[in-house]
Write a structure and sequence with these properties.
Elements (H helix, E strand, L loop, with lengths): L7 H9 L4 H45 L8 H16 L8 E6 L7 E7 L8 H4 L5 H5 L2 E7 L2
Antiparallel strand pairs: 1-2, 2-3
Helix pairs in contact: 2-3
């Protein structure tokens, strides 16, 4: 008769138990799912900011070109966009949008370019996004619109 060492039956019983395996698997899976969900929310916020910046640049360019008698100055276009979109494009930083207006001339048919840029603060993916080659575009969503003066 072969005698087992004392305590060896506990180890074999411990290896056969499955009670804690479900908790460990759940912890691993829920961590991955929360990371993916956070990424989806982060990218959704980025696309929202980019959409609002594009809309703001379109409205600012339209505001600048439709007035044929007295065209608004660059500072009036900037004030118009800032007053209307500073809350939406302020993001988490609260700085508001950066608006740039450039003209190729003052005559009808010349171009008016309005660029609206904001700063995106990534909540979950900040460390990953800052190391990407296109990090500038992801950290500063912008909208650019070019219209001809009427």
């Amino acid at each position: 008769m072969v005698r087992k060492q004392p305590g060896s039956w506990r180890w074999s019983q411990f290896r056969r138990r499955q009670e804690g395996a479900v908790a460990v698997e759940f912890a691993l899976v829920i961590t991955l799912l929360l990371f993916i969900l956070g990424g989806v929310i982060d990218f959704g916020h980025y696309f929202y900011l980019r959409h609002v910046a594009t809309t703001a640049s379109r409205e600012g360019a339209r505001f600048g070109v439709v007035y044929s008698n007295s065209r608004p100055s660059d500072s009036e276009i900037i004030a118009y966009i800032t007053s209307k979109y500073s809350e939406s494009l302020g993001g988490c930083s609260g700085t508001g949008p950066k608006v740039t207006v450039t003209r190729t001339g003052a005559a009808s048919g010349s171009d008016l370019t309005v660029r609206v840029e904001t700063t995106k603060e990534w909540f979950i993916l900040n460390a990953l996004v800052s190391k990407l080659p296109s990090a500038d575009a992801l950290l500063k969503p912008a909208g650019v619109t070019v219209m001809k003066l009427e």
